[in-house]
Predict the 3D structure of the following.
Amino acid sequence: MNVFVDTNILVDLIADRKPFSKYAIELFDKAEKQELNLFVSSHSIAKTHYLLKKFVSETQLRAILYNLLDFVSVVTIDTENLKKGLLSQHKDFEDALQINCAESIVTCDFIVTRNVKDFQKSTIQVVNPEELSKILKLRL
């Protein structure tokens, strides 16, 4: 199973934002055990660093993000992705980029985010972390 992870899930994981971190930990645990494949955009890594640098030391945050790269595949935001996002009908450019990245994965099964409503125009099924947890328990 291939799952594209939105930035808010990364932040939940690293910042241990309860009660949301429970699902993020579960998701990344399954990836570590190679029970599923996780994908993130290159933008998500940079945005997560930007959002958390006030709360986590620079050295620790870089180490966490570095280690995280062992469990995710990074989808690079390139010129094509940017152009597609700028021409899209999505209200939020950042969400358009995330959707474009997920759609570039040949067999992406889900996008997981806590902002499901912002991804309504996605061609890939969008679920919140709790829903994905239930799906994973049924499939794995």
Notes: Residues 2-139 form a domain with the Rossmann fold fold (CATH 3.40.50.1010). The chain has a mean pLDDT of 95. The CA atoms of residues 5 and 112 lie 5 Å apart. Residues 21-32 form the longest helix (12 residues).
